[in-house]
From TrEMBL:
<dbReference type="InterPro" id="IPR034466">
    <property type="entry name" value="Methyltransferase_Class_B"/>
</dbReference>
<feature type="compositionally biased region" description="Basic and acidic residues">
    <location>
        <begin position="514"/>
        <end position="527"/>
    </location>
</feature>
<dbReference type="InterPro" id="IPR023404">
    <property type="entry name" value="rSAM_horseshoe"/>
</dbReference>
<dbReference type="Pfam" id="PF02310">
    <property type="entry name" value="B12-binding"/>
</dbReference>
<dbReference type="InterPro" id="IPR051198">
    <property type="entry name" value="BchE-like"/>
</dbReference>
<keyword id="KW-0411">Iron-sulfur</keyword>
<protein>
    <submittedName>
        <fullName>Magnesium-protoporphyrin IX monomethyl ester anaerobic oxidative cyclase</fullName>
    </submittedName>
</protein>
<dbReference type="InterPro" id="IPR006638">
    <property type="entry name" value="Elp3/MiaA/NifB-like_rSAM"/>
</dbReference>
<feature type="region of interest" description="Disordered">
    <location>
        <begin position="514"/>
        <end position="554"/>
    </location>
</feature>
<feature type="domain" description="B12-binding">
    <location>
        <begin position="9"/>
        <end position="143"/>
    </location>
</feature>
<dbReference type="InterPro" id="IPR006158">
    <property type="entry name" value="Cobalamin-bd"/>
</dbReference>
<dbReference type="Pfam" id="PF04055">
    <property type="entry name" value="Radical_SAM"/>
</dbReference>
<dbReference type="InterPro" id="IPR058240">
    <property type="entry name" value="rSAM_sf"/>
</dbReference>
<keyword id="KW-0479">Metal-binding</keyword>
<feature type="domain" description="Radical SAM core">
    <location>
        <begin position="190"/>
        <end position="417"/>
    </location>
</feature>
<keyword id="KW-0408">Iron</keyword>
<keyword id="KW-0949">S-adenosyl-L-methionine</keyword>
Amino acid sequence: MRILFVHPNYRSGGAEIAGTWPPAWVAYLTGHLRTAGFDDVHFIDAMTNDISDEDLAHQIEALHPDVVGVTAITPSIYRAEEVLRIASEVAPHAVRVMGGVHATFMFKQVLSEAPWIDVIVRGEGEEICTELMLAIEDGRWPKERHKIKGLAFRDGDEIVATAAASTVKDLSAIKPDWTVLEWEKYIYIPLGTRVAIPNLARGCPFTCSFCSQWKFWRDYRVRDPKDVVDEIEDLVDNHGVGFFILADEEPTINKKKFVAFCQELIDRGLPKRVKWGINTRVTDIYRDKDLLKFYRKAGLVHVSLGTEAAAQMKLDIFNKETKVDENKTAIRLLREADILVEAQFIVGLDNETPETLEETYQMAWDWQPDLANWSMYTPWPFTPLFQELKDQVEIYDFSKYNFVTPIMKPAAMERGELLDGVMNNYRRFYSKKALFHYPWRGTGFRRRYLLGCLYAFLKAGFQRTFYDLGKAGYWGPQTKNSVDFHFDETRQLAEAQLEDWEASADKAARAAERRAAVKAQMKDRSAQRTQDFKMPNGAEVRACGGSDQQMEDV
């Protein structure tokens, strides 16, 4: 059976300005499928190779696949749907499969707007996808599709979701096939070397209201550090990788495993051959301040901190559980350990103003991270914060949900003014860094890395790809009132998706009412017990310590 995976051709001028990123998802899926005996697996990276729809159609037709599979994050969803529409025309007998975080939670939306999709894999893909492929190969598809957990599909006019599959419990069984990728095409611009995105753990125990990671992976699991380093050693030895970023939202959560991972890298001499970066939380930097130089010894050179917002009020909205002053100290600790630090700011909420944008710039310059990034608040449609703010959401063109396009319109600003304010922050921060810091601060690796980052910014700016400025028609403050983000206003939420949300909201509301009723009932019973019980002399019952206030019964 011939399986074809396609990575959709979607670009936004965001993360890709730093380089060409390898789509790790296909390596993990392909590796698991090969272990199960599938050896005729092909991959087309339409994004990296900038393949047009016409050329993609020719390539799919030439391969004659039995299955065509794609993945999609929210902004790439329409491009992924289009890949499968093309497949329906040139390979009509192939089963068309979609996976990824957007389709997992928005399957009713996806199947409503793209009925040519045969099936959606919901959740962690390796085991579900393998079970699905076995069913297709054995001729059990579509007759027995209701028996396979973790799927969604159309059955006549009805959209069906089977029971959720278990998360992958034995992560040691995950053996990615990195040979499926054309490694000479995946380059990290700041260092001019090949780049990879392996993962140490899956999931996140934190519940930031704007994030989907904790919902998608569900439970937090850490791989054996030796397995991960085996993987990295293979990437370095056999594929020429010189830099990697751990895909985890926060790989430092499990301190013991992260330390073991670093030690394993050191023991194998890998820090001399490969450098790496991570995303993590300010609180972990505080916790590990005495280990930061050890992490640097293991090859960790770049830490991206989710400082998120300058105003503490915003941190509270995001449920980040950090304090503003902690951000500055964490940045200082990293720089003292010779680890480059990038501060991430989220802007563009309803309460954003020119003054708050200026505040984030002033704080960024005061904190002195090596790099700073201002991301537009993007309300993923399957996160708690979206549910809270959905009455303010005006744009349902998910192709623009990319962290660089202002989906939310602040009450006191137009979207063009918001974009201009963010660009002003970038201009000032990096102009000062370029003139007074990068060429003169440090020597050797640090200086080369920072100048490489500056080159990546300048390259994207010159090509007008940074923040999609060319498409939006932004050329400076003089154009802020004429910017056009080209929102497709015909895009709306599907009725099936709205019904699903309403049902979930009703269920949550009923559960909250039940909890409140039980709490009130127990409080009443406690008060009644107090009333019924009298001291022998008729004195009033006193609480511990002599107070007349009883502890609330919960």
